[in-house]
Amino acid sequence: MATNIGMMDSAYFVGRNEILTWINNRLQLNLSRVEEAASGAVQCQMMDMTYPGVVPMHKVNFDAKSEYDMIQNYKVLQEVFNKLKIDKHIEVNRLVKGRPLDNLEFLQWLKRYCDSVNGGIMNENYNPVERRCKGVKDRNPKGSQKNPRSLQTNNMHNHGSGDTVGLNKASGFRQGKTYAAPVANSSGEVQALSQEITDLKFSVDLLEKERDFYFAKLRDIEILCQTPDLENLPMSVAVKKILYAADAKESALADAQEYLSQFTTSTEAEVEAEIEADA
Fold this sequence. Notes:
The longest helix is centred in the C-terminal third of the chain and has 49 residues, at 177-225. The relative contact order is 0.08. The model is unreliable at 143-148 and 152-180 (pLDDT under 50). α2 (41-50) runs parallel beside α5 (100-118), α9 runs antiparallel to α10 and α10 (234-243) packs antiparallel against α11 (251-278). This protein is mostly helical. It starts with 15 loop residues before the first helix and ends with a helix. The chain is elongated and about 95 Å long. It has eleven helices and no strands.
């Protein structure tokens, strides 16, 4: 089973749309962004679906909004990992911040792990809605009058319906096209811009991660080429010619190849000379 997965593993090339589809289909949710899973409740229920009955769902808070409540969910998840001997450290402090990239990476890992256990096949006998409801009832056994919003609710959708009516009643305005249309249009524009900002932040995070990854690789190559036993070898010198080229131009590769060809030619000449001497 996949517990330790390298960053270049195919698991980390699964797109967020596929991750969201995987979550929504299996847990009957309606998430539209990966950061909506930052509370840790989704991850807990995914493990509950993979290992039915292992997760104490009565401890999982699907309405967690504060970092404190989210951390409690991740504590439950970490306890489950420990119980199942899953060697995976959860970066709780990063996940609860709701950064898209951090949450995407963890969900990518989780998908790979769950698929390695169940072969990517959905557990048809598992009722996710019933399990969530049971968790809420067990957490509030006396029956609270409070009706908390769950992850199934589309938060963006809720902003539109009841709030406009309340404003119209409070201000005394008559409901009609004159006032409702501008509010709807403005709300739609704000939502579209918010989504665009989120997408841009996600793209920047992804680019920064990719940059740091390849920079680290280049730095490792540089250190290797600078070791005393290797730094004067032709291949090391050729690699450093590329690394230290002032401009990102194609001639750096050509210069390195030309440098290596000199040694290749001399080596071939030496071999031919030895053959002739032996003859």
